[in-house]
């Protein structure tokens, strides 16, 4: 049985003070939602404050990216040991990283390897662009992202991987994929690609989230589908009531 995960990706939002306020609105109710794994991914600058506020709760903390090197002359970067000091999760390969910061399947792969080596749970984001979708290339793109992004990972570590299927055209657009389409991509493309790399036990055991304009109104549809094991939530994770409702829907 795969335990659902709902993770909030705050992106580049919230100063420390704003983060404290959002946490104070969210956590009292969120920590009462049982049967679902919960994670919050604030910006780096708020990780320390948020980790203190989440202490003693069952809500995990994640970073939104991470470099793969241990330490050294990499101005502006954050290393795996730095992330692992505070976090259980790390989002990797988000489409915004790929689009604006030049990340590729190869650099995502290095990050995933580093995250696993530091006992973090990588939430590896994949998904096709609108042009790729319209050209009928979704399966090809997504299976390449899995194959290249997860290449060389040992099966004994692969059990910790979380995949987030996030069609790029659905992110922040208010235009979510349909549940059926997302379920089909996960069941017919992502799990078979995982099976090819790691075998069927890992492929069937790995959690695959949906992301892209998830709201309290559409979350239950995604969570009712057999291949989808939760959500990576962007915009709606910045609103306490909305994120609580989504998390409750996953627990239901
Ligand atoms: P969104 O973002 O929910 O605002 O569409 C999802 C994501 O980027 O992870």
Description:
- This protein has a single domain, classed as TIM Barrel (Alpha-Beta Barrel), CATH 3.20.20.70.
- It starts with a strand and ends with a helix.
- Helix 1 runs parallel beside helix 12, helix 5 (105-117) crosses helix 7 and helix 7 (138-149) packs parallel to helix 9 (179-198).
- The model has no long low-confidence stretch (mean pLDDT 97).
- The chain has an eight-stranded parallel barrel with strand order 1-2-3-4-5-6-7-8, surrounded by six helices.
- It has helices spanning 16-30, 44-54, 80-86, 95-100, 105-117, 130-134, 138-149, 155-158, 179-198, 200-205, 219-223, 240-251; strands at residues 5-9, 37-41, 59-63, 89-92, 121-126, 162-165, 207-211, 230-233.
- The chain is of the alpha/beta class and 252 residues long.
- The structure holds 2-phosphoglycolic acid (PGA).
- 2-phosphoglycolic acid binds next to strand 8.
Q: Based on the coordinates given, report the CATH architecture.
A: Alpha-Beta Barrel
Q: Look at the structure and give the CATH class.
A: Alpha Beta
Mean pLDDT: 97
Instruction: Decide which structural class fits the backbone.
Output: alpha/beta
Helix content: 40-55%
């Amino acid at each position: 049985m795969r335990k659902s995960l709902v993770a909030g990706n705050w992106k580049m939002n919230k100063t420390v003070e704003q983060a404290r306020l959002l946490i104070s609105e969210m956590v009292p109710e969120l920590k009462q939602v049982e049967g679902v794994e919960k994670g919050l991914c604030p910006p780096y600058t708020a990780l320390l404050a948020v980790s203190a506020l989440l202490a003693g709760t069952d809500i995990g903390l994640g970073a939104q990216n991470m470099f793969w090197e241990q330490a050294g002359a990499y101005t502006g970067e954050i290393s795996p040991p730095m992330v692992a000091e505070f976090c259980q999760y790390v989002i990797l390969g988000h489409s915004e990283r790929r689009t604006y910061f030049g990340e590729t399947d190869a650099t995502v792969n290095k990050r995933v390897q580093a995250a696993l080596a530091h006992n973090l749970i990588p939430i590896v984001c994949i998904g096709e662009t609108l042009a790729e979708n319209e050209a009928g290339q979704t399966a090809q793109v997504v299976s390449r992202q899995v194959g290249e992004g997860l290449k060389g990972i040992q099966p004994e570590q692969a059990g910790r991987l979380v995949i987030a299927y996030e069609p790029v055209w659905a992110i922040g657009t208010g235009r979510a994929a349909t549940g059926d389409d997302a379920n089909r991509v996960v069941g017919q493309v992502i799990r078979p690609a995982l099976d090819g790399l790691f075998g069927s036990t890992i492929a069937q055991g790995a959690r695959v989230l949906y992301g892209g304009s998830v709201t309290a109104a559409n979350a239950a549809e995604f969570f009712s589908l057999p291949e989808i094991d939760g959500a990576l939530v962007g915009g709606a994770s910045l609103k306490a009531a909305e994120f609580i409702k989504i998390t409750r829907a996953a627990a239901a």
